[in-house]
Write a structure and sequence with these properties.
It holds the Pfam family Sigma70_r4_2. GO terms for molecular function: DNA binding; sigma factor activity. This is RNA polymerase sigma factor (Sigma-70 family). Residues 21-66 form the RNA polymerase sigma factor 70 region 4 type domain. It comes from Granulicella mallensis. The protein is an all-alpha fold. The protein has a domain at 24-70: Orthogonal Bundle (Arc Repressor Mutant, subunit A), CATH 1.10.10. Helices cover 72% and strands 0% of the residues. The chain has four helices and no strands. The protein has helices at 7-22, 25-36, 41-48, 52-70. Helix 2 crosses helix 4 and helix 3 packs across helix 4 (52-70). It is globular and about 45 Å long.
Amino acid sequence: MAVQPSAEALDGKAIRARMNEQLTPDQQQTLELHFFEGYSLREIAEKHGKTVGNVRHHYYRALDRLRSHLFPPKRG
């Protein structure tokens, strides 16, 4: 009997797939490291030789982009 993935695992895969469709590679990497691997923004900056400001920029742009796709503004 094959083991079926849990609903939570499927949701995580769906979220990552959606994230990868909508974000730039830098934005993807920043969110992956922060949310899924637990790095702080400072640690991400140090790991990749970037400034904290640059990483923060990618982080907030990524959140804004995902938010706009998940919760589009209501019209009318």
